[in-house]
Amino acid sequence: MTRRMPELPKDELIRLYRAGRSLNSLARDHGVSAPYLTKHFKAWGVPLRNRAQAARLRGRSS
């Protein structure tokens, strides 16, 4: 028996990521792993943040 992967709301995920949400939090909210979501973002052509960019976002929201 194979596990069926959930349908991912592409536009919503991209919007939330660009608004500053992390891949980890988005993956957790949608019941998938961060690497699985990363693979989809890359396939969708979404530029991913590097560690420095992510750290700046975290600093801004504190």
Overall strand count: 0
**Fraction in beta strands:** under 5%
How far is it from the N-terminal to the C-terminal residue, by CA? 45 Å
Alpha-beta content class = mainly alpha
Taking pLDDT < 50 over at least 5 consecutive residues as the criterion, the unreliable ranges are: none
- The SSE string, one letter per element, is HHHH
Main sheet properties:
none
Rg (CA only): 12 Å
- What portion of residues is helical? 55-70%
Shape: elongated
Mean pLDDT: 89
Number of helices, counting only DSSP H or I runs of 4 residues or more: 4
Write the layout of secondary structure elements.
Elements: H1 10-18, H2 23-29, H3 34-43, H4 51-61
Helix pairs in contact: 2-3
Task: Summarize the structure in words.
- This protein has about 60 residues and is mainly alpha-helical.
- The radius of gyration is 12 Å and the shape is elongated.
- The longest helix is centred in the last third of the chain and has 11 residues.
Keywords, separated by commas or semicolons:
single chain, mainly alpha, 4 helices, 60% helix, 0% strand, elongated
What does this entry show, briefly?
With 62 residues, the chain is mainly alpha-helical. The protein has 4 helices and no strands. The relative contact order is 0.16.
